[in-house]
Amino acid sequence: KPEVAIGLVQKMTLGEAEKLLTSKGYLKSRYQAMIGTKIAGRVEEMRVQERVKVKKGEILAVIEHHDMDARLAQCKASLDRAQAELEEAKVELWDKDRQEKRLARLHEKNMAPPEDYERAVAARKSAEARITATEASIQMMKSNIEEIDATIQHQMYLYAPFDGTVVEKQGEIGEIISPMAMSSSLGRSAVVTIADLTNMDVEADIPEEQMYRVREGQPAEVSVTAVPTKRYRGRLRQITPMGDRTRATVKVKVEILDPDDKLF
Hints:
The protein has helices at about 15, 65-110, 115-155; strands at about 25-30, 30-35, 40-45, 55, 60-65, 155-160, 165-170, 175, 190-195, 200-205, 220-225, 225-245, 250-255. By secondary structure, the protein is of the alpha+beta class. The protein has a five-stranded antiparallel sheet with strand order 1-10-13-12-11, with no helix packed on it. A four-stranded antiparallel sheet has the order 2-9-7-4, with no helix packed on it. A four-stranded antiparallel sheet has the order 6-5-3-8.
């Protein structure tokens, strides 16, 4: 009798029937960032939660900055005082200039001693120097105000760098956020992690001996563990130009063309 080989009937998609190779990998957002601060501070306000979609420029959290607010108010008060001193110095210069001109006329007619005229000239120059110094002081105070205000706006307020979804919230109100934190005992290094879930890639490792089968722009079919019944359309977006020597593989990135909210 002829030997009959018994096999299982399996339903296959077009991509499975025409596949060149299969590889396993991990799903990753193309744009993902851990949002932290440049300087250490305490979280005063959290404005987002996990799975919340945010827009670019939206405030994610606020770091406590009462001491900077006090310094800013002090600098503004000093600026007002310096501007008042500048107006006073201008009035003084007007008076010194008037006295100099009067003594200059008297000196030309030999009706005033030279010493009085020289003192008037020196007083006028001193008033001019006082105005110059006050204007420089005002400019320095304005620079300090701009610096403190920029520190508050760009370091004490944490903004979303791009449109995305909050995938993890590391910080809570009252916790210390430090850029140098290496453990939870020293505080946290980030407040939230956001990712753009509309631009998802699959990072997979291809054996070197199979690299001749793949090329950039090649169509792909993606199946994820969380949604085993669905096949996503993909395209090989990038072949990393450096391979893994120990594993003899090359990393490739396959972008998903029809992502949905079931991808994690």
